[in-house]
Design the sequence.
């Protein structure tokens, strides 16, 4: 196992946390530790958590810290090797055959190969971070295929042979846990379950993301969002919703609306489900008053 | 074993921790142990917290078993005295009511079931042991006919076909190369059919007592006959038993499920149970596009309006909602209870669930039905 304790000057979870903060991502100790271990052990990092806790953001921040390009592969049901790995440019191949006439021609050359995210990451492992987003949306066939890629970091293209990465690429996988992932996939990875941040940390995130928002507003929004998360809603507001709500309320307030009213009128950016809005409406005033206190 | 293969003394305590985890039902692979040791070395370790986090990251306990992991860690490394029975699957159980709530419940307006009335108001937490009964013909029929007759949906993956809406460029090119680039026949692709998700919700309350055991056996047979089946039980709690039922041997699986479910033969709050189900985003997602099958007599002790809302929401997400009740024995069944009348218009099939044969017959007929 290729263990590297020092990655671009980062030699401990604390150092990584500082670097992530400089990249505008506030990581807690646990996620900094897991990310550091993934980088140092050369293993993929699997981040699981509810939607909107900042899994994709974490991957972006890691890429920024390492100074690498982020290659994103969004998963969906039915995603296959042609969308994830490589594809041949069939129309060009067909044309080339016609044009070649009697001469011999290699139609499986580099010019006919269309690179997809996984192949791109494999070919430039030292300058890219591969983000495999929402792996729980892909089907089990793709998960099995991924397993092979993540254990050996090699790809075989029947027409050209096997390609192997010169070093282990940095891979981040995210999952919303809409289904249980295969145990073998979890085993290959360094695993971290991201929870909603503490109120303190979330307030700092809101202020960092939306610089126009005052501290008291950020705290009130975070308290209100925290209260909403304890309700049985079908769509629970994430961090992005908290940031949007704080920004929207600030905007309305500047336009002349009074505080509790500004919060109440901008609830639509935090709760985006008609039934949820209906459910919370009778208690909204009390909830906001309590949060603003 | 030669001497140089022995572990360094300092590593033994970590290896024995992994062994402790395995003994408590955590699946830890050897490569994870190696990563665990490497991670500890990387982190210093300067405190016990480092070791705990290294374990969390590399041994990857499932989030709902996190509490168990922490307890085992404390027992092993801190020498904690408080050794309790490790409670697995903490997050898979959702409690529905506060103790003492429900004073103003309407009395059960139905004459049909004595044991429903007798079901205790406070949760009766009992552990049930399933008796061993030989496989009935109905279950055998289910296993045999399931692959062909359970509902399917159009998948997103494509396969070769004689006719189809998509062109298979890869195959066409390969064939054309043999003919000097002349395309004689265009290969075709079509979308492959896949098994549809099935969500089985089983009422385990007192009024269903006579049917519970057979229903659980049926759930076990179904989850092995079809790939993606999710099974929940409900009474005064909502419990996900999918994982327990994946165990191959029936007695073993049913005992594991019996261990998880603690509200056997108690009261019923179907509305609250379904609301709780929909409120957990991860669970609610299981219903999307699924064939939802609820096995319950619909003798509701909670608020019928809550039940109606929950079933309405469920039917918006689901492909088809079937309600199987032991009360519907005759073909011209008309619901009498308030709860069943309230939900009738959101339920696509309201049919007999009084015997395994009837439930199996309905499940196998789902394949021929349309989305509702």
Sequence:
């Amino acid at each position: 196992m290729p263990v590297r304790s020092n990655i671009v000057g980062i030699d401990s979870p604390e150092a990584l946390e500082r670097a992530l903060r400089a990249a505008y991502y506030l990581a807690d100790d646990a996620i900094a530790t897991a990310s550091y271990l993934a980088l140092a052990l050369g293993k993929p990092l699997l981040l699981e958590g509810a939607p909107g806790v900042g899994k994709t953001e974490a991957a972006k921040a890691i890429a920024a810290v390492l100074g690498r390009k982020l290659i994103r592969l969004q998963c969906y049901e039915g995603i296959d090797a042609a969308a994830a790995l490589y594809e041949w440019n069939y129309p060009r191949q067909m044309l080339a055959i016609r044009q070649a006439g009697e001469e011999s021609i290699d139609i499986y050359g580099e010019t006919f190969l269309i690179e997809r995210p996984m192949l791109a990451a494999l070919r430039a492992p030292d300058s890219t971070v591969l983000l495999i987003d929402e792996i729980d949306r892909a089907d089990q066939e793709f998960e099995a295929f991924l397993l092979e890629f993540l254990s050996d970091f090699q790809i075989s293209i029947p027409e050209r042979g096997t390609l192997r990465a010169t070093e282990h690429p940095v891979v981040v996988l995210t999952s919303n846990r809409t289904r249980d992932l295969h145990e073998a996939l979890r085993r290959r990875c360094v695993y971290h379950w991201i929870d909603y941040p503490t109120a303190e940390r979330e307030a700092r995130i809101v202020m960092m993301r939306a610089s126009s928002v005052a501290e008291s507003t950020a705290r009130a929004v975070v308290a209100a969002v925290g209260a909403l998360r304890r309700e049985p809603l079908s769509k629970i507001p994430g961090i992005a919703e908290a940031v949007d709500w704080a920004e929207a309320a600030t905007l309305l307030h500047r336009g002349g609306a009074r505080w509790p009213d500004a919060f109440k009128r901008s609830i639509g950016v935090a709760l985006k489900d008609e039934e949820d809005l209906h459910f919370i409406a009778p208690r909204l005033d009390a909830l906001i008053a309590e949060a603003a206190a | 074993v030669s001497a140089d293969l022995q572990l360094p003394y300092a590593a033994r305590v970590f290896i024995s921790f992994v062994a402790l985890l395995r003994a408590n039902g955590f699946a830890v692979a050897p490569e994870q142990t190696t990563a665990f040791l490497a991670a500890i070395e990387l982190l210093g370790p300067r405190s016990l917290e480092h070791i705990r986090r290294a374990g969390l990251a590399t041994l990857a306990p499932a989030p709902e078993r996190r509490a168990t992991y922490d307890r085992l860690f404390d027992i092993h490394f801190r020498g904690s005295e408080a050794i309790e029975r490790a409670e697995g699957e903490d997050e898979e159980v959702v409690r529905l009511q506060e103790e003492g709530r429900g004073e103003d419940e309407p009395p059960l307006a139905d004459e049909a079931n004595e044991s429903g009335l007798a079901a205790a108001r406070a949760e009766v937490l009992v552990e049930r042991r399933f008796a061993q009964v030989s496989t009935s013909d109905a279950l055998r029929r289910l296993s045999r006919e399931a692959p062909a007759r359970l509902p399917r949906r159009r998948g997103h993956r494509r396969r070769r076909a004689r006719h189809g809406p998509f062109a298979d460029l890869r195959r066409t090119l390969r064939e054309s190369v043999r003919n000097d680039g002349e395309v004689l026949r265009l290969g075709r692709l079509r979308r492959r059919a896949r098994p549809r998700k099935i969500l089985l919700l089983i009422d385990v309350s007192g009024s269903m007592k006579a049917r519970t055991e057979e229903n659980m056996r049926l759930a076990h047979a179904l989850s092995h006959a079809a790939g993606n089946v999710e099974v929940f039980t409900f009474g005064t709690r909502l419990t996900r038993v999918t994982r327990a039922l994946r165990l191959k041997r029936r007695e073993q699986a049913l005992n594991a499920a019996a261990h998880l479910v603690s509200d056997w033969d108690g009261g019923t709050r179907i509305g609250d149970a379904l609301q709780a189900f929909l409120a957990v985003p991860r669970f609610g997602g299981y219903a999307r596009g699924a064939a939802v099958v609820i096995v319950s007599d619909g003798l509701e002790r909670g608020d019928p309006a809550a039940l109606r809302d929950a079933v309405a929401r469920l039917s918006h997400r689901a492909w088809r909602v079937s309600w199987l009740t032991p009360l519907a024995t005759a073909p011209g069944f008309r619901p009498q209870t308030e709860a069943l009348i309230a939900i009738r218009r959101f339920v696509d099939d309201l049919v007999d669930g009084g015997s395994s044969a009837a439930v199996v017959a309905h499940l196998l007929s789902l394949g021929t039905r349309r989305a509702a």
Q: What stands out?
A: Strands of chain B lie at 93-95, 152-161, 166-167, 188-195, 198-203, 229-234, 237-240, 291-295, 320-325, 349-352. The interface with chain A takes residues 27, 29, 31-32, 34-35, 38-39, 42-43, 50, 53-54, 56-58, 60, 63, 66, 155-157, 169-170, 172-173, 176-177, 180-181, 183, 243, 275-276, 278-279, 281-282, 284-285, 313 of chain B (CB under 8 Å). Confidence is low (pLDDT under 50) at residues 82-89, 97-124, 129-135 of chain B. The longest strand of chain B covers residues 152-161.
